[in-house]
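#struct-help
A.M.: can someone run this one for me? Single chain, 418 residues.
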Amino acid sequence: MPAVLIVDDLVSIHEMLEAVIQPTGFATSFATDGEKALVRYKADKYDLVLADIDMKPMDGITLLKQLKLYDPNCVVIIMTAYASTESAVQALKYGAFDYLQKPFRVDELLATLRRGLEFRKFQAERAAAGPVAGMKSADIEGRLIGKSPKIAKLIAQVKKLSAVRSPVLLVGENGTGKSAVAEILHAATGAADAAFLRIDCSLSSESNFREGLLGKNGEGGTWVKDAKGGMLYLQHLQCLSLAMQKELVSVLRNTAHGFRLVCTTSEDLEKLVDEGKFHDELFYRVASLPVQLPPLRERTEDIPLLAKHAASQAANPLFDANLIEFTDDAAAVLTAYHWPGNLTELHQVVTKLAATTETRVITSQQLPVRVRQLKDWPPLTEYLAGQEKQYIDLVMHACRGEKAAAAKVLGVEVSRLG
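D.P.: on it. Structure tokens below:
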């Protein structure tokens, strides 16, 4: 029998909730403040915690933080009066599963408890299956190519996220590989036939969005129903109007735990929240697990590997594209270029070149003019100090030893080059 720990300083609330919850198959226990609740949670096993936000000496938010430190997988539902709804929304930031606004309806309470229990069971199943249950570690590393510290950190994050079902927010410039990460997380569920529903918020009109995602009664449209048991992938979330964001919050409260929610943005949503341009509750519901994807210019040491991989994917009619090599000067130019389009641009450039080249060895002169033009290269100040010598060497090589030209690109005095 699933167990619920109810935390409220009013005994009358305990009695009311017990009368409502127990007949539905839940066992109930009680605590009158946060400190007692924390002791009880550590002593016994509970599937859910239903806690009031306004208590002394330890309030609901503090209890939530302490519970998450002790058990990151605990499922906490916050109860709040209307006046403290803003604090309850903030609780989502600290990992609350959901919140209920007093006075709440019985059906609303029971529905929230059922969703919380479903989420708890899913977490337990994923933990029992082990990390990356549906996708091998090598498969992840085969999709996220590179050896740089930043890509290594990203791979480690993705492996951990594969074992949970919480919403994920992928943050990064266009072309940094957000869709690849979403596909990895979907594959890691282990359900081969699970739906992967991709919605681009920048392209979908409000009428289509409302019909497909929100539905007629705000309980979820065809997109939500189709995504059940799989993943709902919302791209460019920042493009939604505030009105649509507000309606989306309502849908997610009722349906978000029927599927894995992954969203992407190329903007700082927290900053947009502060500016009043993004709904705060939507932000906390989708951004509990933010993942930053680095632009290509911040992991230049990966570019030769990525170029080689992209070339191997091409279909060259003359020879096996796996055999294509880049000369040192071509690798130097590729590494020094700024790549504003990130992985997408690199893949497009290399794939086209590898598919059309008549020579197996590619030199810098075969690269597109925009990649070879020195004016497109970033100044030295954009690079970390640890990369300075390597970057100078690359520019000097590309400039064929012409110090004046290299100094102009680098934005330094010629004497700096020795």
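A.M.: thanks! The domain at 137-294 is CATH 3.40.50.300 (Rossmann fold).
D.P.: also worth noting: The longest helix spans residues 106-129.
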